[in-house]
TrEMBL record:
InterPro entries: ClpP/crotonase-like_dom_sf, Enoyl-CoA_hydra/iso. It holds the Pfam family ECH_1. This is Enoyl-CoA hydratase/E-phenylitaconyl-CoA hydratase. GO terms for biological process: fatty acid beta-oxidation. CDD domains: crotonase-like. GO terms for molecular function: catalytic activity. It comes from Shimia gijangensis. Keywords: Coiled coil. Residues 183-210 form a coiled coil.
Length: 261
């Protein structure tokens, strides 16, 4: 299958595997959605790694050679408003919309090599929380040159990186190298290709070594806090923290007090 999902020692590895450039066909979006559902549901899996097969690309985006059926304007609108599962997964838009809105409170580390464009760029930013890139990695959103806008809104890219960096990527449509991506805070570090997976696995294993409840609380409170005001964010995080600490404490507070007396 073009999307490979493997687990080992609490780590899930999701590989985009459609050589030579790992471009997405419509059915691959569904496969990735199903892999993510399995990842989030498996209590034994604590962290994920997202990468592309080979050395040429993480993913160069959608496969523009995939045939699209002829549709009237009304059919296009009706399909746009319908849930993805109401239509054949061999067509755009498809299951990518389903998992771009699904909740994910487990961390994913990305390992990026070669080209990372378009839909590949969107998935990188939406589906990973910690990112390594090889020295030959190239990033970009070239769709604007063809009048295809909207990725910045779908990603809320301005919440991830500085406004000026987001505008540079979205409006110029230029390709940027790994060093520039690091400067823009798109990635955490640039490493040699032969060290790429080693670094990603080390980060994933370090995250997986922490108590899973703590990771779960940190992920959800962080994500929800982005859309809340300061007071509501503090309250929500405080409640989640106290509940997590309550179940992690083996000795009841009253017993501790009695012992002290």
């Amino acid at each position: 299958m073009p999307i490979r999902y493997e687990t080992s020692d609490g780590i899930a590895k999701i590989t985009i595997d459609k050589p030579p450039l790992n471009v997405f066909t419509p059915v691959m979006h569904k496969e990735l959605y199903e892999a993510l559902r399995e990842f989030t549901a498996d209590a034994e899996v604590r962290c994920g790694i997202l990468t592309g097969a080979g050395s040429r690309a993480f993913s160069a985006g959608d496969d523009i050679k995939t045939p699209r059926p002829e549709r009237t304007r009304l059919e296009v609108i009706e399909r746009h408003l319908a849930p993805s599962h109401a239509y054949d997964s061999q067509e755009y838009p498809g299951w990518e919309h389903e998992f771009l809105t699904m909740a994910r409170y487990k961390p994913i580390v990305a390992a990026v090599q070669g080209y990372c464009f378009g839909q590949g760029f969107i998935y990188l930013n939406h589906l990973s929380d910690f990112r390594y890139a090889s020295t030959d990695a190239v990033f970009g959103m070239p769709e604007i040159a063809y009048g295809m806008g909207g990725a910045g809104g779908a990603l809320s890219l301005g919440k991830m990186i500085p406004h000026t960096a987001a505008m540079e990527l979205l409006l110029l449509g230029d390709k940027i190298d790994a060093a520039t991506a690091e400067r823009m805070f798109l990635i955490n570090a640039v490493v040699e290709l032969e060290k790429l997976m080693e670094n990603a696995e080390a980060a994933a294993n370090k995250i997986a070594s922490h108590p899973p409840l703590g990771i779960r609380v940190e992920m959800e409170s962080y994500q929800r806090g982005l859309d809340l005001n300061r007071a509501d964010s503090m309250a929500m995080a405080g409640h989640m923290y106290r509940m997590a600490r309550a179940v992690q404490t083996t000795t009841p507070p009253l017993a501790k007090k009695d012992a002290a007396e």
